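thread: overnight batch results

M.L. [08:02]
morning all. the overnight job finished for the chain we discussed friday. pasting input first so we're all looking at the same thing
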Amino acid sequence: MTLQEEQDIISICQREPKAFGILFDEYYNQIFGYIHRRVLDWDASEDITAEVFMKAFMNITNYRWLGISIAAWFYRIATNEINMYFRKDKKAPVSLAELSVNQNFDYSETNQDILEHDLLLQQHEDFVQVQKHLKNLDTKYQEVIALRFFEDKSIREIGEILNKNEGTIKSLLSRGLEKIRSKISK
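M.L. [08:03]
and the structure it wrote out:
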């Protein structure tokens, strides 16, 4: 979807709320994937994703077009919801392998494509090490690293999502990666 098409759809959504389904269909999997890779709990990911799109739907009339993809707004809402999830329940992310062993989690009952992708990543030893250390970092580092490397967002896009300038994003990435490197090399 081009930026112009997106702007047109947003304009329609602001007048006719049922058109929001177009944005939902376009961005649901992307936002769910981001949330799931941060939370690693299928049910919580579905709940958080639903909350993200409900908040976006309820506030679409207040959305101001700034010439950037609305995906940045969805990611910002998702990041805030993830942070609230961890603060509220004082939960820490768990891996899919832990869910399988400790809670008899059946992978066959879920979206096979996302799970196969996650399983392939987890099987890779480096990813497992990074993930282990990533969840122990401050949230500010987790956010930028997840957006940059798991969601493949540019520095500019991350800045838009987190409402921070590009220099701050680069600094957070650098410091976060250095913290992970130092823990892995020990």
